[in-house]
Fold:
Amino acid sequence: MKQAKIILLRHGQCEGGSILRGKTDVALTDLGLANMHQSAAKLGLLGCLPSLQLYSSPLMRCHAFAAELAQQLNQASADLALKVEIMSQLQEIDFGLWDGKSFTELYQHSAKALDAYWDNPWDNGAPQAEPMAEFEQRVAQAFAQITQQAYDLAKVNNEDGSASTTALVVTHGGVIRHIIALVLGLNRCQGLYGQLNIDYAATVTIDVFWPETDDKSTKAVYRLNWPS
Structure:
């Protein structure tokens, strides 16, 4: 059986205060960056080298940390040239005219529409926003690509006895929620968006297995470890 680990890491605290932060590109606070490094340190990534893949959303609250982490890991291993693969599909949903607005302002002027969005974002989209169905489709495409690349590397590792394959994905709360839905086989699960809290710099680990079958199937089997 081939196996790998996909670790989702949410970005840390950001500048800009309490705003609806989708495509709005803001930097991490010093605390946010420090918390991400603390979370990464707990993962033991040095032990995953050289079979570590690193992916990131293009938004600076994710990519700035991912670039720092790659540099640190490369410095720790003289023969390593780890690069960050930037995937546009991993960026947060675009909230349209609401994007970047403070929650105070939104609830003052659009409380009913905002509540309807949290209750059912598929049928009650924000004005001029990215439709939820399109967001989920692009996230699913990214997750499928990451899983396939993990499988390709796992095949090599199984053959030469290398360290197990690990992929670290630096991304956003909405992206992580939809990947959880994919792993659990949930469709349009409102509770994941409305009731599930995923803290800044939290991690979600997904164990991936590819059982050996008579038909040589490469279909992945997932096991979710709850956010921490």
